[in-house]
Amino acid sequence: MLFASSLSFSRILPEAAVHRHIRVLSLLALAGLLIFCSPRARAQQEPPYFVTYSSVLEEPGNLEIENQNIAASPKNANAFFAPTVEFEYGVTAWWTAEAYLQGQTTRNDSAIFTGFRFENRFRPLPREYWINPVFYVEYEDVNAADKSFLEITGNTSITTLQVSNAALRKEVERSIETKLILSSNARGWNFSENFIAEKAVNESEPWEFGYALAAAHPLALAGSGRPCIFCRQNFNAGAELFGGLGTTDSFGLKQTQQYAGPTLALNAPHGLTFKFSPEFGLNDNSATVLWRFGASYEIQQFRDWFRRSK
Fold this sequence. Notes:
By secondary structure, the protein is mainly beta. It has helices spanning 2-9, 15-37, 165-168; strands at 63-72, 80-92, 95-106, 111-122, 132-143, 172-186, 189-200, 208-218, 235-247, 258-267, 272-281, 289-299. It has a single domain (2-305), classed as Porin, CATH 2.40.160. A 12-stranded antiparallel beta barrel has the order 1-2-3-4-5-6-7-8-9-10-11-12.
C-alpha cells in the first residue's frame, strides 16, 4: 500500500521530478531483485530494531542486503516516503562494515537522492558477557532533505519538513557519528542501549547527542517439530524508544524529537527477514507517527563468489 502511495505521488509531480522518482524506485527494485534472486541461505537471527543497534555483527564473509523504508504524513507538512538501501558485510568476527544509499519523495514537491553513509562496528570482546559493548563509527554525506530518521540527534523539529526539497538539498552536511552500543541477552530477551554523538566536519557546530533504547523477545523459544514460515519461533517482537539529547551548548530533552513504538520481525526461511514498526511522536516537535517497514536477505559466504576454485 505504501509503495502504491509513493507511486501516486509521481502523478502530481513535474516531469523532471518524475524521472528522479523513478531512479529512486529503480534503486529499490534492484535491491529487491538481489534479495529474491540470490542463492538460498539461512538468515542470522537479529533483534527486530530499526534505529537501535545490538551487539550482533554480521558473520565473517556474509553479505546482508536490506531495504528499509519510512513513510509519514506530518502535521502541516506534505506526506513523504523515504527508502534506504543497506549493504552490510562481515569483514571479520569483530568488524562489520556497511554502506547506505538514501533517497526520498515528497508529495506536491519532488523526489531526490539525499546522500550516502559508510559505517563500521567493532566488538572488542570475543565472548558473550552480561553486557556486550560495540563501538560504532560512521561517515555521513547527507543533505538536509534526508527523511530517513535513522537516528535523532541534537535539537531538531518537524518544522523542517515544511521546507521544500529544492532549498534543503543545497545544505549538505558531512559529519562523523559515533555510538557506544551496549547489549545484554538473558532468557531469550535482548536489551540494547545506544548513546550517540555526532559532529559536522565541514562546519563549526557543537557536538550533537542522541540515544536509542530497545528490548525484544521471540514469541516462542522452542522450535516447531515441522517446517513452517509463520511458526511462533520465527517472530520476534519488541519496542524501541529514541530521540535527541541536545548539544554541548544545550544538553537535554528541550526542543528535541522523541519517538517510541512496537516492532515486529518475521525471520522467514532461506535468509529472508521482514520488519514492521509504527513509531509515535512523544512531543510537539515530533511527527505524529512514522511508519517503517523493511526486508533483508543474508547471502552466506559472499566473499567465496570471488575466489577461484582450486
